[in-house]
């Protein structure tokens, strides 16, 4: 395994661990999700260059599109939850209090 692959895997793993263990604020969960998407985007951008296949060059652009949609939806949910609950703490949000 090269150092490049190790850095992508470690960035994704650290983001997943941050999402799993530091879930106090909604914005920190969104930042962890965005860093996971960023590491996946960079890995998918480097992959066609390493394998020298031009047919997979559109996949990172598709991934970036879905990442932007996910970020916009997450920020809209952050604004909506902050307006209704008064803060972005995740312990205030519950599916049982609809």
Automatic annotation (TrEMBL):
It is a multi-pass membrane protein. It catalyses: a ubiquinone + NADH + 5 H(+)(in) = a ubiquinol + NAD(+) + 4 H(+)(out). Its EC number is 7.1.1.2. The chain crosses the membrane at residues 6-22, 29-49, 55-80. Its main location: mitochondrion. One of its GO terms (cellular component) is respiratory chain complex. Gene3D superfamilies: 1.10.287.3510. It is found in: Mitochondrion inner membrane; Mitochondrion membrane. Core subunit of the mitochondrial membrane respiratory chain NADH dehydrogenase (Complex I) which catalyzes electron transfer from NADH through the respiratory chain, using ubiquinone as an electron acceptor. Part of the enzyme membrane arm which is embedded in the lipid bilayer and involved in proton translocation. Belongs to the complex I subunit 4L family. This is NADH-ubiquinone oxidoreductase chain 4L. It comes from Dinornis giganteus (Giant moa). The lineage of its organism: Eukaryota, Metazoa, Chordata, Craniata, Vertebrata.
């Amino acid at each position: 395994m090269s150092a490049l692959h190790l850095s992508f895997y470690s960035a994704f793993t650290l983001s997943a661990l941050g999402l799993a263990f530091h879930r106090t604020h909604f914005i920190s969960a969104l930042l962890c999700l965005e860093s996971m998407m960023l590491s996946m985007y960079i890995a998918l951008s480097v992959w066609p260059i390493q394998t020298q296949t031009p047919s997979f060059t559109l996949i990172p652009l598709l991934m970036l599109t879905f990442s932007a949609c996910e970020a916009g939806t997450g920020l809209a949910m952050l604004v909506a939850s902050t307006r209704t609950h008064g803060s972005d703490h995740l312990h205030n949000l519950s599916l049982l209090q609809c």
